[in-house]
Amino acid sequence: MMAAAPAVETKDLVKVFERGRRTIWQRLRRERDKRDRFRAVDGIDLVVEPGEIFGLLGPNGAGKTTTMKMLATLLIPTSGTIRVLGIDPLARPRDVRARLGAMLSGERSLYWKLTARENLEYFAALYHVPPHEIKARIANVLAAAKLTDRADDYVERYSTGMRQRLALARALLPDPPLVVLDEPTVGLDPQASRDLRDRVRELKAQGRTVLLTTHYMEEADQLCDRVAIIDHGRIVALDTPAALKRTIRAEEVVHLEIGLDGDDSAVLDRLGQSAIVARSERSNGTLTVTAHCASARNFVPAAFDAARSTGSTIRHVEVVPVTLEDVFLALTGRALRE
Ligand SMILES: Nc1ncnc2c1ncn2[C@@H]1O[C@H](COP(=O)(O)OP(=O)(O)O)[C@@H](O)[C@H]1O
Ligand SMILES: [Mg+2]
Question: Which residue ranges make up each domain of the chain?
Fold first, then answer.
């Protein structure tokens, strides 16, 4: 038997944008376009296997949404190839759209003056759901989004979390084997986020493939079978969350706040003898340090010695487990949130 095609496959996928806007004056005079061109997506190779929850994790501006839009036929790549369930979206966009449920802009594209059911009826017609199936499909997607009880309420009376779940319900209308979700929990409170993540896990349990983006490392860690860490349009690491965390060769992460008056290089040098200083930032009289170490039990006393011998004082110590944030930091030298 032939193996199933990957749910998503991209090869050297590139999207170039121009920065800024061309003025009408420049257009009228047919001036040469001198704007900067930059590669928002800069050569992405991805293989998402059927049935997995795959995450693109990266900071704002990394190119996540642009990648998703190219997969969902909403943007044309500058170069490279895409296959969605074995289909080329450039050649057969309708076939891709019929098999891919996309939640790219969430609640913003729902009609607030209609009920949830009316919204779904409208989108079912738009997505060419066969008329005799509409009722059953809507019942299914309402159940999948846990909105059955509230189906006949106006969307304007929904909470943000419910609207986001309705956006998910809408994405499921074509009964798609592949679901792509762009920052599904952004703007949701912790409870609503947890709830949405449970809905996403159910999609996997139903045998669907899920590709999602997030800039929340905990979300990628908890939800995804595999994660591609993306920065400046490139994949900088790709593996299971556990394997990614093993790559930084640290068992523990220590956050320190050190009070000092003078130069910080002496204390940083000393700290660097017993840990990897992944990040340090100075503001006013406080040096904040993130250190990756084999054992906090050994490193923390060494840090106090280092502080004492350089005339500084440790004001706060926190020992935390390794997270994907640390992996990102180790790879890029920057924090995800910056
Ligand atoms: N239509 C566009 N025209 C020009 N630049 C764009 C356009 N869409 C996105 N960008 C830029 O491309 C980069 C990547 O954006 P995006 O894919 O939205 O990142 P992310 O979703 O990871 O935050 C950003 O610098 C963004 O400003
Ligand atoms: Mg985005």
Answer: 8-245, 249-321
pTM of the shown model: 0.87
Q: Which residues surround ligand 2, an ion (CB under 5 A)?
A: 64-65
Identify which ligand lies nearest to the alpha carbon of 183.
2
Asked if 254 contacts 283 with a C-beta cutoff of 8 angstroms, the reply is: no
Are the CB atoms for 279 and 272 separated by under 8 Å? no
Whether 65 is in the pocket of ligand 1, judged by its Cβ within 6 Å, is yes
Residue 60 CA to ligand 2 center (angstroms) comes to 6
Cβ of 177 less than 6 Å from ligand 1: no
| The domains spanning 8-245 and 249-321 adopt the same CATH topology | no
Q: Would you state the CATH architecture of domain 249-321?
A: 2-Layer Sandwich (3.30)
Report the alpha-carbon distance of residue 100 to residue 7 in Å, rounded: 10
pLDDT tens sequence for the chain (338 residues)? 556 799 999 999 999 998 777 777 777 877 776 667 899 999 999 999 999 999 999 999 999 999 999 999 999 999 999 999 999 999 999 999 999 999 997 666 899 899 999 999 999 998 889 999 999 999 999 999 999 999 999 999 999 999 999 999 999 999 999 999 999 999 899 999 999 999 999 999 999 999 999 999 999 999 999 999 999 999 999 999 999 999 887 788 999 999 987 778 899 999 999 999 988 999 888 999 999 998 899 999 999 999 999 989 999 999 998 999 999 988 998 888 75
Measured CA to CA, the distance from residue 210 to residue 222 in angstroms comes to 14
Q: Do residues 254 and 303 lie in contact, with contact meaning Cβ atoms separated by under 8 Å? A: yes
Classify domain 8-245 at the CATH topology level. Rossmann fold (3.40.50)
